[in-house]
Every structure is written in structure tokens, then in C-alpha cells.
């Protein structure tokens, strides 16, 4: 810890945010370039969709394990290793000349992202004292919101300009900068020795999440029917749920080194924050497809115009995040998170009820600014609530669980939105029919956000110090 005290924590946070920005941006930057990739790589629709699926699958599946890797081997070397893998895979992606090679490179990119993802959140709990942690997590949260929104805009400009490979090649200099900044600015805290590794839990959780995410993300493509021989999407999802159920039982009886200590959920703040994280992950990821259809198919805007119109959500998120994080340090996270979720729901609701061919694009931009304020206000305090009352020994596991839940919820949101748009009984070929489908789908996201805001009622009204939650000795030894 001594090195952490001698280090400027804000400088360390800036280094961590570089890598975090990259991995979050790459969840959305590829979508706008898929048609170009399909044409230039002579790929079919199914093949090209795997460029995204491979990244999402290998990003989500190892997250629980990644949270523990930082505890076992040290958060700095694990973060650096993940960033090195991600940067090298980005270079590989940019040089690919076949869709098969690109899918493999994207899968490797996802592994690097998963290794990096839980470390900044755990780092912040050691770099910042409790009274300043909310502001730091506010900056971290605003980076996540801005990155996912900037992705489609930057991807559109790069695909239309120098070409789709630059969507990946642009990561390389940024990744190298992030590696240098992390090496110089982030302290290396010695990992706790004598630690075991939950191999059975690792296999059960990784395979369970892999099957669940695969089934949900690809269900639409296979018509929710057979995938290979007698094996169908329902079987794959069922196996995933079964494996995750066995994983939870194993965590209950593994008293040596549980990957996910169930005592985490004895802290009501962590449980409630995890539910709200799922709600906002579901809604934020699910927002972009109907929004894109509204802007390009209904309002007939060009891709660059549609991308530019999404800027307000990124700007508003970046401004609101740090402010909300600092405010949560003073008044507690419950009210700030709940307000943020309701504001986000109000922004989506405004777009939903006004969706139509005559909708003023500036009205959509204003509503997206409201959405950005809501996501910024909710995201950072939500993370602070999740880990703020936990003992340091549980922070790595908690960060892995929290991020895994949010990521899987995002995949579920993307799938649910796609199904909703197709199931809506309207003439999708007409602008009015498409607008009706978009409006109904966005209202689904509003409902999910209301559920998330209701979960905030279980949070403590005021922030609690970590010492107030003493996990049992067996869990603390993890």
C-alpha cells in the first residue's frame, strides 16, 4: 500500500481509463463497418456477425475468473497483460485478410478485454480513500458511457474514410500509450500470498456463461431452433443455466477458495447494485439498435449524421458522471443511482412516444442528452455502492461478479431488443411501421429501468465504511 500512497491516484486513474476506454469502445465500434467487411472479405452474413459474437463471447465468459486473477497475481501485471493481449490482437485484426482470421483475432481481443475489465474498479478501492472514491468511480463510469457512444461515431468515420481495418489499428497507438502510462503511473501492490485457485468453479462459470451468451446472442440467427444436428438453441441455453446453477452450489460448499463468495450477497448494497447494473447494462446496450433504425430508416439520416446525433449522450454522460460520483460521497449512492435510472428512463420514454417520420432530430438529440445525464448519474455511484462496504479481500471477486452480470445483461438486452423489433405486429417495411416497432421496443427498456430503480430501495441510504461489513474468515481468506 505504501506505493499507492506515494502515487498520485488521479494520474493512476487516467492510465487505467485509457485501457478501459478501448475495451468498452470496441463493444460498439464494429457494428457500422460490418457491411464493408462483408463485401471486402467476401463473407456471408452469418460469418460476419461472428466478428462481433466472438468478441462478446470471449469478453463475457472469463470475467468472473479475471476478477480473481488480480487478487492472485497482482492487479497491475494482470491489467498490463490484458492490455498487451488486446493491443496485439487489435493489430492482428487490422491485418486480417479473411473473415475466419478476423473472427479468431476478435476472440483473442475479447480475452484481453476480459482480463483487464475488473481491475480498474478494484484498483480504485485501494488508490482512493472512501470519502473520495465516488468521484473517482464517477470518472471511471463516465469513460464507460462515453466509450460505448463514441464507438459507432468513430467507426462510421473510419469505415467511410481510411477503411474498416483502421477501426482496429487505431487501438494500437492508444494501447501502447496506455501500457506506458500504466507502467509508470500505476503502483504495483503486492498480491496476497498462499492463495489457491478454484479450478472447478472456473470451468463451471466459464462454460456456463459461454453457453448462455452464445445461445442468447445467436438465437435469432438460428431461428431459436437447431444449431447442429439435434442440438438446438434451447438445449445450449439450458446447459448454460444448468452449469451456472451447479457453479452456485459449488460456491456454497467450497470453503477454501470460492471464485464467487456467496457472502458477497449478504451485503444488501452489493446485491442491489448488481441488480441495477444488470438493468442499466440491458437498457444501454439495447438502446442502440432501435435508435439506429429510428435515425437511419425512419428519419432517413446518413450514417455520419446519425452518429453525430448520438454525441449528446456521450457529452452529457462525461459531465454528469464525475458530478454524480462526488455527490454520492456526500449523500449516499441510493438517491443518486435511483435518480439517474429514472432520468435515463425519461429520456428513452421521450424518444419512444415521439418516434415517427415527422420527429424532429433535434428533439431526439435533446432526449439523448437526458439519457446521458441519467447514465452518468447512475453508473458511477452504482459501482461505489457495490464495493464501498466490502472488505478489501472481497473486492476482486466483487468486481468480477459485478462486471460479469452487467456484460451478460447487455447481451440479453441486445437479443431481447432484436426479438422485440421482429415480433412487433407492424409493417416493418414502412416508416410508420418501423417507428411503431421502435417505440414499443424502447418502452420495454423503460420498464427494465423502473425495475432497476426499484432495486435501489434495498440500498443503504448513506454510504457505509468497509469495516461495517466483515465477511466470515473463510471468505476473507479467498
Automatic annotation (TrEMBL):
Keywords: Cell membrane, Membrane, Transmembrane, Transmembrane helix, Transport
A single Gene Ontology CC term: plasma membrane
A GO term for molecular function: transmembrane transporter activity
Membrane topology classification: Multi-pass membrane protein
Subcellular location: Cell membrane
Residue ranges crossing the lipid bilayer per the database entry: 12-34, 46-66, 78-95, 107-128, 135-158, 164-185, 197-216, 228-250, 270-289, 309-327, 336-356, 362-387, 408-425, 437-459
InterPro entries: EmrB-like, MFS, MFS_dom, MFS_trans_sf
Pfam families: MFS_1
Domain Major facilitator superfamily (MFS) profile, residue spans: 12-464
Identification of the protein by name: DHA2 family efflux MFS transporter permease subunit
Organism: Thermobifida halotolerans
Amino acid at each position: 500500500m505504501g506505493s499507492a500512497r506515494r502515487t498520485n491516484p488521479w494520474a493512476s486513474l487516467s492510465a487505467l481509463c485509457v485501457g478501459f476506454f478501448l475495451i468498452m469502445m470496441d463493444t460498439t465500434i464494429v457494428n457500422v463497418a460490418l457491411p464493408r467487411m462483408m463485401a471486402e472479405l467476401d463473407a456471408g452474413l452469418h460469418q460476419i456477425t461472428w466478428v462481433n459474437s466472438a468478441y462478446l463471447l470471449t469478453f463475457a465468459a472469463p470475467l468472473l475468473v479475471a476478477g480473481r486473477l488480480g487478487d492472485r497475481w497482482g492487479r497491475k501485471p494482470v491489467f498490463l497483460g490484458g492490455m498487451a493481449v488486446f493491443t496485439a490482437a487489435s493489430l492482428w485484426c487490422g491485418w486480417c485478410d479473411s473473415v475466419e482470421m478476423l473472427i479468431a483475432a476478435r476472440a483473442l481481443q475479447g480475452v484481453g478485454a476480459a482480463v483487464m475489465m475488473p481491475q480498474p474498479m478494484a484498483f480504485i478501492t485501494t488508490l482512493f480513500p472512501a470519502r473520495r472514491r465516488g468521484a473517482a468511480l464517477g470518472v471511471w463510469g463516465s469513460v464507460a458511457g462515453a466509450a460505448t457512444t463514441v464507438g459507432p461515431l468513430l467507426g462510421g468515420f473510419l469505415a467511410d474514410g481510411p477503411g474498416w481495418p483502421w477501426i482496429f489499428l487505431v487501438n494500437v497507438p492508444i494501447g501502447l500509450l496506455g501500457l506506458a502510462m500504466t507502467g509508470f503511473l500505476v503502483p504495483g501492490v503486492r498480491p496476497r500470498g498462499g492463495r489457491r485457485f478454484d479450478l472447478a468453479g472456473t470451468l463451471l462459470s466459464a462454460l456456463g456463461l459461454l453457453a448462455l451468451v452464445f445461445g442468447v446472442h445467436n438465437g435469432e440467427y438460428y431461428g431459436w431452433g437447431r444449431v447442429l444436428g439435434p442440438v438446438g438453441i434451447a438445449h445450449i441455453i439450458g446447459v448454460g443455466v444448468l452449469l451456472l446453477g451447479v457453479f452456485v452450489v459449488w460456491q456454497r460448499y467450497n470453503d477454501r477458495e470460492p471464485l464467487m463468495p456467496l457472502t458477497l450477497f449478504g451485503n444488501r448494497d452489493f446485491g442491489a447494485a448488481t441488480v441495477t447494473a444488470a438493468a442499466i447494462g440491458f437498457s444501454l446496450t439495447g438502446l442502440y439498435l432501435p435508435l439506429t433504425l429510428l435515425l437511419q430508416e425512419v428519419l432517413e439520416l446518413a450514417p455520419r449524421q446519425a452518429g453525430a446525433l448520438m454525441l449528446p449522450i456521450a457529452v452529457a454522460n462525461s459531465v454528469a458522471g464525475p458530478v454524480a460520483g462526488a455527490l454520492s460521497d456526500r449523500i449516499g449512492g441510493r438517491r443518486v443511482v435511483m435518480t439517474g435510472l429514472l432520468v435515463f428512463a425519461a429520456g428513452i420514454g421521450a424518444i419512444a412516444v415521439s418516434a415517427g417520420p415527422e420527429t424532429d432530430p433535434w428533439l431526439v438529440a435533446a432526449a439523448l442528452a437526458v439519457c446521458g445525464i441519467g447514465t452518468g448519474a447512475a453508473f458511477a455511484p452504482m459501482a461505489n455502492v457495490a464495493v464501498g462496504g466490502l472488505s478489501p479481500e472481497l473486492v476482486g471477486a466483487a468486481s468480477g461478479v459485478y462486471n460479469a452480470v452487467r456484460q451478460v445483461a447487455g447481451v440479453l438486452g441486445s437479443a431481447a431488443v432484436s426479438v422485440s423489433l421482429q415480433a412487433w405486429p407492424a409493417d416493418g417495411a414502412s416508416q410508420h411501421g418501423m417507428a411503431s416497432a421502435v417505440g414499443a421496443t424502447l418502452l420495454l427498456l423503460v420498464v427494465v429501468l423502473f425495475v432497476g430503480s426499484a432495486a435501489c430501495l434495498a440500498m443503504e441510504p448513506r454510504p457505509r465504511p468497509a469495516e461495517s461489513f466483515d465477511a466470515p474468515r473463510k471468505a476473507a481468506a479467498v
